[in-house]
Amino acid sequence: VQLVESGGGLVQDGGSLTLSCADARRTFSDYSMAWFRQAPGKERNFVAAITWNGDSVNYAESVKGRFVISRDTDKNTMYLQMNSLKQEDTAVYYCAANNRVRRTINAYTRAFYYQVWGQGTQVTVSS
User: For a pLDDT cut of 70, what percent of the chain falls above it?
Assistant: First the structure.
């Protein structure tokens, strides 16, 4: 397993969680990475993306101003700080990595651009 997510759990409406995605083999430090999520019965959707050096990030409109994506190259880990959580944020969260284009300026928002995926971590927001 190359990408390992952690940090999911149950949180109340308005609460915060931080997800982590560890690059177990130290493979993706030069590549863009992203978070996607999938709610029950729905398709997988883009949440946030970051370039290899963190210079460029993208967010889905639904999470702008509430979520922050970051990465620590020394720890080979990407993070998703989630604040002001809402029930509609409930989903399985997946981290993903591109392994084709090194040091690109593009923080890709489409799943098509990501070849390696983690197993997912459940986030549940309760009322």
Answer: 100
